[in-house]
Specification:
13% strand, three-stranded mixed sheet, alpha+beta, 350 residues, 2 domains
Length: 350
């Protein structure tokens, strides 16, 4: 468990779960528990004072769900407001009154806010992926229709951040939590519900960003997938090309952002070595290297030799990327410590 997930007394007393449990719901990739999810959905309708839906239909991804909804007739209007927005607002007002403004702020910071930072970008990226897949670059009536349908979704597992801040053992929020534990996004209408499977694969880096250099960073059972490198969306063909990169191919890439991804994957030190770079400065702190790139800032790095030998007697080389304006190795190393070159005077290089 990360230090940011450390449970605080207020968290468990208020919600009945620690944050690692809610985080597990949000990142679950197992197939949906459809029986439990449908029980929670019907329970949410009853708690809101609405007739239960006539049918719960399943789709293998949010993209497939939106496609299905657009084809349905007689589904009735969305009832998301009654099922999700109204009970959430009521519970928030109750807890705010109980804890006070400062108490509520501290409670939210200790619960939902910790999950929101990693979950909300994922929600936004899924929505963007659905929109791009279904309407491409269209910005007209069709795109507006898809956007409105995405706003009608109840987020299932991705509602974990705000559910983590409230008691969920009974009442309307208990029903929503039941679906959160069991399924992905779902769309409640007066007569029909369309529910989505959870993703079958999710890859993120240590910062919680979508990240995978070997395939989709997020994938659903029907093939809907998102590709990303350290949070940056990239085309599927781009990921497939990464293992075959060469310095020539990197230099030829016209998109500066994609070129940076290529450099990170290839390795700056390897790129400098393979592209025949020449040192521009040497001193007792290390060697400064510089590679010019078309339509982008140059790659400037300091090569530093560790003064402490490894157990086998060798000395490890470190590569430090520094600002393009760096002119000396000393200035580059000093910059990594937040110092000016004239005040950087280490007792021992490491």
């Amino acid at each position: 468990m990360n230090s940011t997930d450390t449970e605080e007394p207020l968290t468990r007393a208020s919600t009945g779960h620690d944050l690692s449990t809610w985080r597990a719901y949000a990142s679950a990739t197992a197939p949906a528990d459809r029986v439990t999810a449908e029980h929670g959905i019907r329970r949410a309708y009853r708690e809101a004072g609405l007739p239960e839906p006539e049918q719960v239909m399943w789709a293998d991804s949010p993209r497939a769900a939106v496609t299905l909804i657009r084809q349905l007739t007689g589904r009735g209007p969305s009832v998301r407001e009654a099922l999700r927005t109204a009970p959430w607002a009521l519970e928030r007002r109750r807890l705010h009154a109980e804890l006070g403004a400062e108490g509520w702020a501290a409670h939210w910071a200790a619960t939902g806010a910790r999950l929101w930072a990693s979950t909300q970008p994922l929600v936004d990226r899924i929505g963007t992926g659905v929109l791009e897949d279904l309407v491409g670059r269209d910005t007209g009536k069709e795109a507006a229709e898809v956007r409105l349908l995405l706003l009608d979704a109840v987020l299932g597992q991705h509602d974990a951040p705000w559910l983590a801040a409230f008691p969920t053992h009974d009442g309307p929020l208990g029903a929503l939590a039941e679906v959160c534990r069991s399924a992905g996004w779902w769309w409640p209408f007066a007569r029909i519900v369309v529910a989505s499977e959870r993703p079958e694969a999710l890859h993120r880096d240590e910062a919680g960003r979508l990240d995978n250099g070997d395939g989709p960073a997020l994938a659903y059972p029907d093939g809907f997938a998102l590709h990303a490198w350290r949070g940056m969306p990239v085309p599927p063909t781009f990921i497939a090309e990464l293992p075959t990169l060469t310095p020539e191919r990197i230099r030829a890439e016209e998109n500066a952002e994609l070129r940076r991804v290529m450099l990170e994957y290839y390795g700056y030190d390897r790129y400098l070595a393979d592209s025949g770079a020449r040192p521009v400065h040497r001193d007792e702190t290390g060697t400064l290297w510089r590679i010019e790139l078309p339509d982008d800032e140059p790659v400037v790095m300091v090569e530093v030799l560790n003064s402490t030998p490894e157990p086998d007697g060798t000395r490890r080389t470190y590569w430090l990327r520094v600002p393009p304006s760096t002119r000396t190795a000393r200035a580059g190393v000093a910059w990594t410590f937040g110092l000016e070159a004239d005040v950087y005077a280490p007792v021992r290089e490491t």
